[in-house]
Amino acid sequence: MFKKTYDWIDERLGITPIWRDIADHDVPAHVNPANKMSAFVYCFGGLTFLIIVTQILSGMFLAMYYVPDIVNAYRSVQYITDEVLLGQIVRGMHFWGASLVIIMMFLHMLRVFFTGSYKAPREMNWVVGVLIFFVVMGFGFTGYLLPWDQKAYWATAVGAQIAESVPWIGKYIKTVLIGGDVLGALTLTRFFAIHVFFLPAGLLGLLGLHFIMIRKQGIAGPL
Amino acid sequence: MSDKNGKQGLSRRQFLSYALGGTGAFMAATIAAPLVPFAIDPLTRTSGGGFADSGLKESDVKSDFPTMVDFKVHRKDGWIEENVKMRAWLIKDESGKIMAMSPICTHLGCQVAGTVDGNGNPKPSEDGEWWFHCPCHGGRYTIYGINDKAKPPQRPLDLYEVKVEGGKIMLGAISQRKA
Amino acid sequence: MAHDHFRERIPGTPRFKEKDKNKPIGTEPFFPNFLLKEWIVGALFLVAFMLWIVFNPVELTDVANPSDSSYTPMPDWYFLFLYQLLKYFPGSVIWLGSVILPGIAATLLILAPWLDNSKVRHPFKRPVATSAMVLSLLLMIWMTYEAHVQHEEHLASQPKKVDQSAMPADTTLVDANDPGAKIFATSCAGCHGADLKGQIGPFLIGVGNKYDEAKLVDTITKGFPPNMPPKGGLASDDQVKQVAAWLAKQKQK
Ligand code: HEM
Ligand code: FES
């Protein structure tokens, strides 16, 4: 049954070569921790991706209860934390995951840097990587405001002030960033939209490029 | 099964694939373990079952025609708690038991109207035994909320759970009656 | 690991690259061999992550209050090095720390493959790139640490709000007209509040449940230098006694 369905689709779309290419490509010995323990540094990229997946999932589930408006945001987070079944855990996944993504991504970047893996022909993938880094920082900045508690509010207030310090155009940057003159209702909706629509779209696009390039170019050889 | 060398049992490749599937399933389960209960949390919240004071006394309910009452029910909707306005029609059945009917038509949920005069006092129906009329698709019901099978609604009006406490009528959860 | 069914395929499917059979030992197909190892690492990592979450509940501070400017802001930890950088460029040159320096750093990072464009890859063979990164790393770690320390110092220097979580629910004063109460108002109330609910010092509602009069005399006489002066700043032992007698009656539940 499964085989028949598969063949039917394969006949039309020719999907076998796609997954065979991914499944059968050979992974060199020097990135395999089973061969040489120190190769565990090559796992960092994959682990970053794993945590990104949990971030996306926990975020989707949190959105079932969260409301991005200044009257309800705090109460909905409170409701998640105090009342919803395992809400504390799901919120914890997303909160701690945010830090973990940063840590793992940073370690991954250091691995790439110190092994000189960004050198030709992989320069473009390095650039994509740095862009991913900025996008993830953006996730952190916008997500921090969402619970609308004191910590969130005042950290964002500092961020807005820093934006304002840009010469000449600082004032305009700040206004666009917080959606008005005061940090309030419009800031929250704006940050929410950026956090759950704009940045994920950017991140997924960049990750797609990242992985396609890795597959095309292969992992850099042993040092 | 046999592999290419004709040996019996799992090939190395099959074994690894199963192990991979198992590890993947374990990771998926670890991630899903908190997420699924989180999503189905509403199942753990029953719709209260609490009773609300209807504001009517036992003696206010007649046995000839239903009496209408608007009352408030405390409702917890997530983090928002509010008092929701509800309506019920109460009547004593032949055995003297109080029944409280919901005015929500069992066809598509319009609000049925009782037969009342200009002052809102019940009066006999001009439509034979049919006393409640639905404005939407012509559904009609007797004073006990029994539906006219020839009309769209196929079920009698729903009933509130009724409890009498010190003469005061308390109304609880709504339940359906069989057709 | 030199088995020859290394590159075995699912029976019936073609070998992908028959010629690879003689690749160096240790090379293996992505699926399932390598992925299995990755996923085992991933599974362990995930379990550690979930355990961490279970034992470290996330807090929620009070609801945002735009008019409470006394709150000490603190960005999330991974922004701290940037936050700290600002402190070195105060006032009108803040843009050096907020735009120019981070901008230069980001540009250098993006351009790394072109700046460090030799063929060699071993970190020890490209001392400039390696030491630049190590140095930046140390700086970031140090600045993050500094920001944290300075934040803690700042918090400690703030008059801290008293923790009233353990205060009895009933806060009506016992014998508000007692002579002890009048003496209390002259000095002690400045820190403990005229209503005994605490301000800089802890609340004293219900203190009679914990200490009797003798113990109170003793405690007040000693004080808690430097936070509370001996005798609580009162002039005489007699005054201390009267205050202690009044406080001993505060047995609110
Ligand atoms: C969400 C963030 C990221 C994910 C999920 C990710 C994922 C991966 C994965 C799975 C690999 C394969 C090798 C390995 O695991 O070490 C890889 C390689 C690579 N990554 Fe990333 N990465 C991320 C961010 C970055 C960043 C921030 C940079 C650099 C600034 C970067 C630059 C590179 C480069 C140049 C390679 C090729 C390395 C080589 O060929 O040896 N990546 N990435
Ligand atoms: S809704 Fe009442 S008859 Fe259709």
Automatic annotation (TrEMBL), chain A:
Question: Is the keyword Transport assigned to this protein?
Answer: yes
The record, for Pfam families, names: Cytochrome_B (PF00033)
Q: Where in the cell is it found?
A: Cell membrane
User: Key word Iron present in the record?
Assistant: yes
Topological relation to the membrane, as annotated:
Multi-pass membrane protein
Q: What is this protein called?
A: Menaquinol:cytochrome c reductase cytochrome b subunit
The protein's matches in InterPro entries, at most eight in alphabetical order, are given as:
Cyt_b/b6_N, Cytb/b6-like_sf, Cytochrome_b_N_euk/bac, Di-haem_cyt_TM
Cofactor(s) the protein needs: heme c; heme b
Species annotation: Tumebacillus flagellatus
Question: Which Gene3D superfamilies does the record cross-reference, listed alphabetically?
Answer: Cytochrome Bc1 Complex, Chain C (1.20.810.10)
UniProtKB/TrEMBL annotation, chain B:
- Spell out the PANTHER family in the cross-references: CYTOCHROME B-C1 COMPLEX SUBUNIT RIESKE, MITOCHONDRIAL (PTHR10134)
The molecular function terms of the Gene Ontology recorded here are: 2 iron, 2 sulfur cluster binding; metal ion binding; monooxygenase activity; oxidoreductase activity, acting on paired donors, with incorporation or reduction of molecular oxygen
One Pfam family here: Rieske
Q: Where are the transmembrane segments?
A: 15-36
Q: What is this protein called?
A: Rieske (2Fe-2S) protein
Source species taxonomy: Bacteria, Bacillati, Bacillota, Bacilli, Bacillales
According to the entry, every stretch annotated as the Rieske domain falls at 90-171
Which UniProt keywords are present, listed alphabetically?
Answer: 2Fe-2S, Disulfide bond, Iron, Iron-sulfur, Membrane, Metal-binding, Transmembrane, Transmembrane helix
Automatic annotation (TrEMBL), chain C:
Residue span(s) of domain Cytochrome c: 175-251
Which cellular component terms (GO) are annotated to the entry?
Answer: membrane
- Cite the GO molecular-function annotations of the record: electron transfer activity; heme binding; metal ion binding; oxidoreductase activity
* The keyword Transmembrane is annotated on this UniProt entry: yes
Q: Which UniProt keywords apply?
A: Electron transport, Heme, Iron, Membrane, Metal-binding, Transmembrane, Transmembrane helix, Transport
Gene3D superfamilies (alphabetical): Cytochrome Bc1 Complex, Chain C, Cytochrome c-like domain
Entry annotated with the keyword Magnesium: no
Q: Where in the cell is it found?
A: Membrane
The record's annotation in Pfam families points to: Cytochrom_B_C, Cytochrome_CBB3
**Membrane-related topology note:** Multi-pass membrane protein
Spans through the membrane: 39-58, 93-115, 127-145
Occurrences of domain Cytochrome b/b6 C-terminal region profile (ranges): 20-145
Give the protein's recorded name. Answer: Cytochrome c class I
Lineage of the organism: Bacteria, Bacillati, Bacillota, Bacilli, Bacillales
